[in-house]
Design goal:
The complex is a heterodimer of chains A (496) and B (491).
Chain A lengths: L1 H18 L6 H25 L13 E8 L4 E7 L1 H20 L8 H20 L3 H10 L1 H11 L4 H34 L6 H4 L6 H18 L8 H8 L2 H26 L1 H28 L3 H22 L2 H32 L15 H15 L5 H13 L4 H26 L14 H19 L2 H22 L1
Chain B lengths: L2 H6 L1 H19 L3 H18 L9 E3 L3 E3 L1 H25 L3 E2 L5 E2 L8 H19 L3 H19 L6 H32 L4 H5 L9 H18 L8 H7 L2 H22 L9 H23 L4 H22 L2 H28 L15 H4 L1 H15 L5 H15 L3 H27 L16 H19 L2 H13 L1
Helix pairs in contact in B: 2-3, 2-5, 3-4, 3-5, 4-5, 4-11, 4-14, 4-19, 4-20, 5-6, 5-11, 6-7, 6-11, 7-9, 7-10, 10-13, 11-14, 12-13, 12-18, 13-14, 13-17, 13-18, 14-16, 14-17, 14-19, 14-20, 16-18, 16-19, 17-19
The chains are: A mainly alpha (496), B mainly alpha (491).
Chain lengths: 496, 491
Amino acid sequence: MILVWLIAIPLGAGVAAWALDRGRGDVSRWVALAGITVDLAIAASLWTASGTPPVTGPAGPWMVELDVPWIDQFGIRFHLGLDGLSLLLILLTGLLGVMAVACSWTEIRDRVGLLHFHLLWVLSGIIGVFLALDLFLFYFFWEMMLVPMYFIIGMWGHERRIYAAVKFFVFTQISGLLMLVAIVALAVAHGRATGTYTFDYSQLVGTVLVPDTAWWLMLGFFVAFAVKLPVVPVHTWLPDAHTEAPTAGSVVLAGLLLKTGAYGLLRFVLPLFPGAAQQFAPIAMALGVVGVLYGAVLAFGQTDLKRLVAYTSVSHMGFVLIGVFAGTPLALTGAVLQVLCHGLSTGALFILVGSLQERTHTRDLGRLGGLWPAVPRMGGMTLFFALASLGLPGLGNFIAEFLVLLGTYPVSPAATAAAAIGLILSTVYALRLVQAAFYGPPQELAPVRDLGVRELAITTTLIVALVWLGLYPQSFVETAAPAVSRLTAMRQGMLR
Amino acid sequence: MTGPALAALAPLVVIGIVVIALLLVISIRRGHGLTAVLTMAGIAVAFAALFHPGLRRPVSSEALLVFDDSARLYTGLILAGAAAVVLLSFGYFGREGARPDGARRGPREEYQPEEYYVLLLLASFGSIVLVAAVHFSSIFLGLEILSVSLYGLIAYPRDVPSAIEAGIKYLVLAAVSAAFLLFGMALVYAETGTLTLAGMTAVPGNVSDRVVWLVGVGLIVTGFGFKLALVPFHLWTPDVYQGAPAPVTAFVATVSKGAMLALLVRVFARVDVAAQEGLFVSFAVLAVASMAAGNLLALLQDNVKRMLAYSSIAHLGYLLVAFLASGGLAATAVAFYLVAYFVAMIGAFGVVAVLSGGEREAEHLDDYRGLFARRPWLAGLFTGMLLSLAGIPLTAGFVGKFFVTVAAGSAALWALLIVMMVTSGVGLFYYLRVVVAMFMQPAAVEAPEEGALPVPLTATLTLAMLAAVLLGLGVFPGPLLAVIDAAVARG
């Protein structure tokens, strides 16, 4: 039941935030904050409870499970399950959800209740994606994330918000429909082979498919996740959506929505189609390398601060793709950590850029510069997260990218070497970000306020999390370990 | 005619009696409210009659009509759709309106809407005959009853030129399609020597040798294609949808098309469409053309009614995909999708009807700009209907699309499925255009006659109920699915 609460609390809080919106909307903010904090607390309590002994419950790999019939005629069940991988991602969702509510406290002044309604419904959909163990249910949540996000971008976004919102919606929807076809095809193939029609993950995992069929179905799933991740060349919605969204939207997009793509690869593509995924790995890794380098180069070329941060996501998520398809335990662990660290560091960067824009009303690097003397706290924080993003040892991102490279080397030295160049390029764009905004001759801008208590609290929390991930990643690695070892065991079985 | 046979026809009998009663009442005392209440009562009784124990087993009446379970299912759907249209029409015709020139004019009641309800009931009568027909003559009778009533309904606002134009266009179209249908029936009769559906489909041996039969069936399909507005027989659709009063458009888009589709399923129930290559390919071509042309042309529309017209063309294409899948799963998918389509389409046109003040229809995209700021509930509801048409989760449309996918998937119609997915992805653009206009753009000019347009209570109730059904089916489709499964499996 606790899993249902995880999904239902944001839904209810969202409705309440909207219904209680009177005038300035402070009530909505508090309600939304309370709702998502409760979710975070539940996730955290599950996490502490999961410590020892093992992270697996009595019924298979799931720590907590819920399975009730939903649409019997089509073999669809309301099946939720939590393992270490989903738990980590739900923790991230809760944390970034709190941050997203907090960071829009002063930025959003218009239709506050409605924004929080949409925000909490997106978060609920994301949590649902991380929990669903029925493919129909998964697709249901997958699409449910989409509509509120579309409204967040389109109603509270910046100048070209409508273009960005529609592009986001259409990209994800079309790729999602291809996945739907693949889901149905998989269920039909399973039904033909066994006589029972079901969409249940645990039953479909063992489906034996003709290699050709498996290949096409795997591609159907991969396309949907690749658009979300994003993988070059289907990444073009990302810079637009991230740039035009309001800060809370950017945080959720970069910090969480992209992660659903990574989660989908780990939870569905690898286990459902181990053979085809193995076959596809070289291509996927090549795409990952292209993403790492291309994203980094483009990030360097941007003059719009938010766009710059958006392109760094393309680069960082390339590492995730490489790690997932390299398939060694180290690489998979690295990919999981990268998902967490990138969520935190990029979320923080978007929050900082957002607060900068709120104060200066521009994101144009040409018009910014020399801000450090005026806003030393903001400058320092930005420097910290830029360093995290470029992979400074001691912070989580370093551990994650290092593990990915280390784990990929035995599989493909070439990909490792090429991706390592990305680390150098990330230094270039990260330093440019800080330099162009905070150093150099001061521009003529209205006096700018430095970070307030609320913003310092946000950034400090994220710093603590990143340092924790950087200095003692073991606590997270252990949680993810059972899921990772299952994936590797499966791969070993395929290789033999 | 025996007692049980008469009981089997109970819904038709009730509607027929109400029509006559209405005509008598109107001749004694005109009254918009009275007529509407009687109409609703008649529909309610007819609906209740569906559950009459006499209908529990399929009874065929004089070999013209069979009220089996699937006919009862579709009759129920038709009656429910008609009831929603009646409620919307009551608000639409009963409303005070201001002329564009500023002078106050009387309500739309000057059209004397009492006979409107008679026509509406007759059209429903024709539709019910269609879904229960098992004989060429009853098919033709039902079709004509439906079409003739629709001429009147479409052109009901008789001083509005566009409505008259739409009525005449529909007249021409219906005449042409009836001609095709009749000629096709004649050819099939020449070949098989019988007018029953069972006889028509009992074709021995290799069909490709029987050219006359094939041509006959082809002509029948063409006649159906006109009525269902499948591409390339769709040219009348946008004009008629635009010109007709919004509630009538809702009726044409749902009840009339739904009845034709149910008939199509019945006609080809005994023909193994998948095995007849010629038939299969021609239906597949119609489906692909409808999906592609409907969605692409809808992109070009600035007129919401025209846009919905093209959208309905595309939806019929999706339904054909499910139809082509054939088998039990396909029948279930068709019925469920049809229900979802009914709810969303009637809801969408209902919103248009509610917003249409005076003698102008709120049909241009500009009418919807900034609607969310003015009328958040209505805008939210319209968004729900559009998202259901687009097949987004939490709505009935999503579940319907999923079932169609499953049905087509288990029949291995992968090419059709991919076309369906890609074109419905394109379709998103135009649904989103309306949503964008409502939520994200300021009102075009000063909103005219806003204060003068309260939403009629009946329309509010209808729309609220449609929205509830839309969400209910989107989250808990199980109960309806059980009903449909039982009906089409036994039927």
